[in-house]
Amino acid sequence: MKKFTTVDDINDLDELILTAKKIKSDPFGSPELGKNKVLGLLFFNPSLRTRLSTQKASLNLGMDCIVMNLNTEGWSLEFEDRTVMDGNKAEHIKEAAQVISQYCDIVGVRSFPTLTDKEKDEAEQVINSFVKYSSIPVISLEGATEHPLQAVADALTIQEYKTKRKPKVVLTWAPHPKALPHAVPNSFAKIMKLSKYDLVIAHPKGYELNPEITKGTTITDNQDEAFKNADFIYAKNWSSYNDYGKILSNDTNWTITKEKMALTNNAKFMHCLPVRRNMIVSDEVLDSEDSIVIPQANNRTFAVQAILTKILENGK
Amino acid sequence: MKKFTTVDDINDLDELILTAKKIKSDPFGSPELGKNKVLGLLFFNPSLRTRLSTQKASLNLGMDCIVMNLNTEGWSLEFEDRTVMDGNKAEHIKEAAQVISQYCDIVGVRSFPTLTDKEKDEAEQVINSFVKYSSIPVISLEGATEHPLQAVADALTIQEYKTKRKPKVVLTWAPHPKALPHAVPNSFAKIMKLSKYDLVIAHPKGYELNPEITKGTTITDNQDEAFKNADFIYAKNWSSYNDYGKILSNDTNWTITKEKMALTNNAKFMHCLPVRRNMIVSDEVLDSEDSIVIPQANNRTFAVQAILTKILENGK
Amino acid sequence: MKKFTTVDDINDLDELILTAKKIKSDPFGSPELGKNKVLGLLFFNPSLRTRLSTQKASLNLGMDCIVMNLNTEGWSLEFEDRTVMDGNKAEHIKEAAQVISQYCDIVGVRSFPTLTDKEKDEAEQVINSFVKYSSIPVISLEGATEHPLQAVADALTIQEYKTKRKPKVVLTWAPHPKALPHAVPNSFAKIMKLSKYDLVIAHPKGYELNPEITKGTTITDNQDEAFKNADFIYAKNWSSYNDYGKILSNDTNWTITKEKMALTNNAKFMHCLPVRRNMIVSDEVLDSEDSIVIPQANNRTFAVQAILTKILENGK
């Protein structure tokens, strides 16, 4: 594996999930793999799970981890070509990425979308610039349009909890007070397709995701209908993709409640976290034994450790 | 030891101090104890000594340490139950604590008081929420009402410098331009009681500490009287407890000067640091050979290393 | 080596460069040298290369590295003596430096100049206060008037690329939208003198550097003339030293272009980074094969690793 910035970078999902499961059963089993290797983690945005689980995974592999908050600790970066840099941007990504590549062996980057400039967001300007100019493998710690490490953890979690070969998985929009990115639903939809599960996406009209990602997937604006026979409910808010970055509705009829969950086939409740209680999901559901958000978050460590393992083994 | 968030969590102070002294004489003596263990340090407030000494102690034990500044690097946390999270708080402590518990083996939390909401501060809402929802041991890196790691370092320091079995120890209020918490004097008063030393607390009228903590202790508003025959002077500012969080006086007659120290039995001068020169204490006293604030700060490493050792040994 | 805060601290440059070259050929060759040692890195200002390369170098040596952003994570420091600390500064450097010396084995400090208070900047108040009060070796991660780690990397880079014993090296001012410090040009001028290379400094009138540093060096305001027969062009902006901290000109005739480089003896282009494209240097030059800014940045790791090695060997 040379980079991991989208679910599309996964060659063999079954094999990757198997690797993650092996690592989970013996997380300290390869203490030499990361020896004398440095993982650089560059954050342009807040992070809890990704930050901690990725540090934990690198330590498990005997790898050193250096964390930088680029906005506050480094220099403001220019991403446009051929500009006269006479403004506030002190360093061009061309130099920054090449330089970082010399101090680190793998670099992870988190960069959220603007949610105002669709073209720039779709181009994944920040992460793809790192890919373009770095001489080391780049992993996404959540980009503008994808969160592939989350998706691997999600797939691992469903693999662990499913009781049938091809479970029905519902990705459902739920209300939230702020405009949120599409990265998590995009990567989840992609990895569910790879998993060949029975995926249904439910959202109010106007919240259609990028049709290139969802084509071939059942989509409905009837949440109750979608929940019938569901084995997994994956709740997530996102802003409008067509009316880019806008909040069209905060309809609390879409909040996941006990009544909604009663429509399912004893479905497990999933969410990538952080989650807004009593907006996305009721306390009752989140605190119930059907909620698997905590073990789902735990799998973040093994997902990223599997990716790091694939990259490190590739480099040997 | 399952948690360490208050001096009350100490079962056997003599034994703990003995452990700290042993560690001080051989800080790298247990390099395997922390192997493959992660200490997470979560800061809601600034820190110098606690931050560095705790990292140092964990490294001494072969333990990896991950530091996070929650306010700037993570998500804003909600601590209230049953709220509709439609405001600025992105994540509930319930999830955050459970998730962090999966990536770390011990978690330390620093959270200063509001000094405006006495009830919330007394409840130690932040640290106690971590204790409630975490599945790993929680240590306080200074809470709203206690700073127990400081207290252990203080007790170790007095143990090292005392020349009689039961020294006279004076905890004296001193002036400061800002409203300060009660955490340090509270924990110090508690650990002096445990140590069975002759503790006297001196402060101007109106600066009474929580009477539940000071009951049984000699209290006076005559600083000069208190200093007579004192073996240790522990200076510290705090705001009013009764008129909660208020500054009632900045009476510089309470500043610790050479003249004041002359009243004592060649007392050692102590302070938890950071200290305001020529407010709390004159340059002359702080720079004198009777000042032991620097070795006192050094003992922070061995105090926290002793606590981590107790927790790690417990987990084996 | 007891401290490294100026190029003047170098006893034997040839031997230091040799050490750096040896380290570069075998960066993991001394994994025990830093064992159980802690390097503390204290930043008052942003940093990318220094931050990452120094962490990398310490890890290469088996040394633990603790990073602190003093302004946001610690307490505001007072550097003046005999002040009544009743303002916003919570801790005096006297205590801070002594305390940090107990938790770390070496401390690095970055503190940029004010560019308004020449006397204070020239006194290197921050770094020299750490030197004065610390009981451990202090290294500069860039001070008000010098950036000696950069200079060692620069000297190593020229040593690697030069094709004659005594190359002609031109340090040239170039335009920049903001007022910049003199630290890099000062340290570069000093180390070029030590290297006994043929140094020429070119800048517009009014941009004279500190004459104590440049005395004996050829200085010109004719950039084209300076570039003739040059083997290395080191571009850098700085603000006025005489009209302290002021921008006197942003004359883009001083930008390093292909045409300017054509005047040289196929010179290599150097810059300490971050660099403003199309202000300091044109894209064409920076992206050409004559630009060695990326390997120059790579040498930061080996420069600081050589310094840490000298200090650690000294301490044995």
Series of H and E elements of chain A? HEHEHEEHEHHEHEHEHEHEHEHH
What is the chains' assembly state?
homotrimer
Q: CATH architecture of the largest domain in chain A, please?
A: 3-Layer(aba) Sandwich
> What pair of chains forms the biggest interface?
A-B, 31 and 30 residues
Percent of residues in β-strands of chain A: 5-15%
CATH superfamily of the largest domain in chain A: Aspartate/ornithine carbamoyltransferase
EC number (chains A, B, C): 2.1.3.11
InterPro entries (chains A, B, C): ArgF'-like (IPR043696), Asp/Orn_carbamoyltranf_P-bd (IPR006132), Asp/Orn_carbamoylTrfase (IPR006130), Asp/Orn_carbamoylTrfase_sf (IPR036901), Asp_carbamoyltransf_Asp/Orn-bd (IPR006131)
Function (chains A, B, C): Catalyzes the transfer of the carbamoyl group from carbamoyl phosphate to the delta-amino group of N(2)-succinyl-L-ornithine to produce N(2)-succinyl-L-citrulline. Is essential for arginine biosynthesis.
Protein name (chains A, B, C): N-succinylornithine carbamoyltransferase
